[in-house]
Amino acid sequence: MDLSLSPAEREFRDEVRTWLEENHPGPEPEGLAEVMAFRRDWQRQMHEAGWAGISWPQEYGGRGATLIEQAIFAGEMARAEAPSPANVLGLAMGGPVVIAHGTEEQKQRYLEPILSAGEIWCQGFSEPESGSDLASLKTKAVKDGDEWVVTGQKVWTTFAQYAKWCMLVARTDPDAPKHQGLTYFLMDMEQPGVEAKPLVQITGEGEFNEVFIEEARVPDANVIGGVGNGWSVAITTLMNERAGLAFAAIAQIANSLKRLGELAGETRANGGSAAEDPVYRQRIAQLHIEAEAMRLNGYRGLTKTMQSGVPGPEGSLGKWQWSDINQGIAELALDVEGGYAALERGAEHAIAGGAWQYSFLRSRANSIEGGTTDILKNIIAERVLGLPKLR
Ligand SMILES: Cc1cc2nc3c(=O)[nH]c(=O)nc-3n(C[C@H](O)[C@H](O)[C@H](O)COP(=O)(O)OP(=O)(O)OC[C@H]3O[C@@H](n4cnc5c(N)ncnc54)[C@H](O)[C@@H]3O)c2cc1C
Predict the structure, then answer these.
(1) Is the pLDDT confidence value at 15 over 70?
(2) Cβ(211)–Cβ(36) under 8 Å?
(3) Catalytic-role residue among 76, 112, 119, 241
(4) Ligand 1 shell residues, CB under 6 Å
(5) Cα–ligand 1 centroid distance for 367 (angstroms)
């Protein structure tokens, strides 16, 4: 296997790198609403320069680049520590789903505003009683003329408070077997009957929401992939979510390991540094080894996607490895900080302004969001390794 870049890919990487050096918008402001506004501006700027929707078709406003170039771009964004675009769910999932399952009219209507961050998207899958077992969801949609009337509750809906559109999976046939009675809708969040209430996470931020839906209206034209076909459209969404993460995650882990190395090299009050301690050295080395395994598996997943044209279950491996490594780095960083780790974010002596404490708290969610590690292990066992199903 040749993992080096071709001359054209190197040229592409250099072009991305130069653009990011010249256009990096600087540090993000404090506060979620301010961060979202900042990221919307940043995404608009990216889009205007042709750096949003790297592998999307040009006719819908994308760059029409290859999947390798998309991976290079994601890696360069993370390497430059550029802010995330505002419309992460629209870019990673909503757009690819409309491209794969949408009608021509839907592509014309929805794709461009995803790229420009003109319309933010959220993902309405999980419910209070349905997370891992998504197909058991109860939110229902009942046909009324050429509209659907939706009633139910979603939960953990990231950025719902900023979203115009919700990728909503609802039950349209209560009598069909549970995977077959589902339909995938685009629901307008800005209507009476839809209310998003932020839930505060362990970090203190209200990134995700409860969404209460009471007789909300969705026109027939907003069904994606056909009535009763919601399960397969939902699977496309989740495969894109996990696969899309890989190369940004690889570069983000490389950045974190670099910072961890710097932290470990700092001399503490007792005179020594963690970098000189064999136990810490071993733990840091182990994380580097795992990061390298994750990087190579990222290429394995990308190769499969290039062969089949759609992201497959291999993305689950990267998501699992990323959450393990990211949590491992944050835990080790707090061990290295020792007593300083107990200081609050922003406290006078908090190391790096409490960035590691934030990272430690936020990374708790990594092994839950986008599919729990247990579920990913089941997917890998059954769909990548071909092991027999227990159920
Ligand atoms: C930060 C964050 C953001 C999120 N954003 C969104 C979003 O935007 N949209 C959205 O729809 N959802 C979102 N989620 C929800 C997320 O997808 C679910 O939390 C996740 O799928 C798990 O579902 P659950 O919380 O209901 O846990 P459960 O499914 O109840 O699982 C509880 C525990 O049981 C284990 N378990 C369950 N079933 C099995 C099994 N078959 N085999 C082995 N173990 C099993 C799980 O691994 C877990 O440890 C988000 C979650 C987080 C943490």
Answers:
(1) yes
(2) no
(3) 241
(4) 122-126, 131-132, 156-158, 208, 365, 368-369, 371-372, 374-375, 378
(5) 9
Model confidence over 80-108: pLDDT tens digits?
999 999 999 999 999 999 999 999 999 99
- 243 pLDDT tier (thresholds 50, 70, 90): confident
The verdict on whether 241 is a catalytic residue reads yes
CA distance 243 to 265: 34
CA distance between the termini of the chain = 37
Question: What residue owns the CA closest to ligand 1's atom 29?
Answer: 132
Residue 150 parent element (H or E): strand 147-155
Taking CA atoms only, the protein residue closest to ligand 1 atom 13 is: 156
Please tell me the predicted confidence (pLDDT) of residue 1: 60
Percent of the chain whose pLDDT exceeds 70? 99
Length reported for the chain: 391
State the Cα–Cα distance between residues 53 and 257, nearest whole angstrom. Answer: 28
Query: What confidence score (pLDDT) does residue 315 get?
Result: 85
Strands (E), 19-67: none
pLDDT at 339 over 90: no
The mean per-residue pLDDT over the stretch 295-309 comes to 86
Contacts (Cβ under 8 Å, ≥6 apart) of 280:
264, 274, 332, 335, 336
Nearest CA residue ID for atom 35, ligand 1: 374
